[in-house]
């Protein structure tokens, strides 16, 4: 029987993971991978909070495959994440927003998990000390990917192709997903398929302490989180959906937009409402990446009783065809995402 916890028995991420392992919800290998991810997030939290002191704000002077100016902390956070995953010895392939292609990890000797991540999402906010976050998702190796690519493809290219095929899995295959938000407090949010749990970093002793169990997104809430600066580039149905939110009934919806997916999603997870990053006339598939932004967040939203959609289908059902593929994202309270799909999302709009 589970021993009765005294009020001094603090549940940490470490003890929670061991409980999950004992309950058979995750295996020992996945426990190691998740511990290594939490270690990376603690290191990134420290770097972010001291960025302007240690001259780590500003640009790296390079552009990533997304065509975005890399911040110094983008590069460092990517190295921190990759190194923690390598030293876990249980990671077979890593796919990062900051890497052009997935990277096979030689140091893997068991477990062989696939980890997709955005090491520092919203990094353009760093210089203004606005919240940012790391987002991750974990998959089993994809056995079909061992299919032979024929001898017309060089061994190296075969290896690369296998990595890409192995990583390109639908969100329904996710074993675990989560994020760490670097804000007024550092909050690690995780699901291993049995609900969403939230841990707050206690700087007194550098441990993530369990602060919320089985988080549930409110079924509806009059909060919408869109970058309305793009309004003129949206299609007419979406414009009408947004216009209708502003009709006092009796009060209009509140607009909340941080410009950092992790911050905007975390508020939506706790308060309800809808976050949206639509396609528009300039970005035919929107801005957010399916593999390491939309799918992990949609997994969490569904685990919390919410919804993640591209406007007309579940994000988790979308089969990625390439690593950095973008999709429109509408995520949050069930009633709010349903309303969006019924008024603005019915059919994919070709611009
Ligand atoms: P915009 C940050 O660059 C990001 O990827 C997400 O974190 C954020 O939600 C979105 O882009 C903000 O984009 O176009 O509104 O500045």
From TrEMBL:
Every Fructose-1-6-bisphosphatase class I N-terminal domain range: 12-213
Subcellular location per the Swiss-Prot or TrEMBL entry: Plastid, Chloroplast
Signal peptide (residue range): none
Domain Fructose-1-6-bisphosphatase class 1 C-terminal: 217-342
Subunit note: Homotetramer.
The family this protein is said to belong to: Belongs to the FBPase class 1 family.
Protein name stated in the entry: fructose-bisphosphatase
Organism per entry: Papaver somniferum (Opium poppy)
Lineage: Eukaryota, Viridiplantae, Streptophyta, Embryophyta, Tracheophyta
From-to range in the entire protein, with total length: 80 to 430 of 820
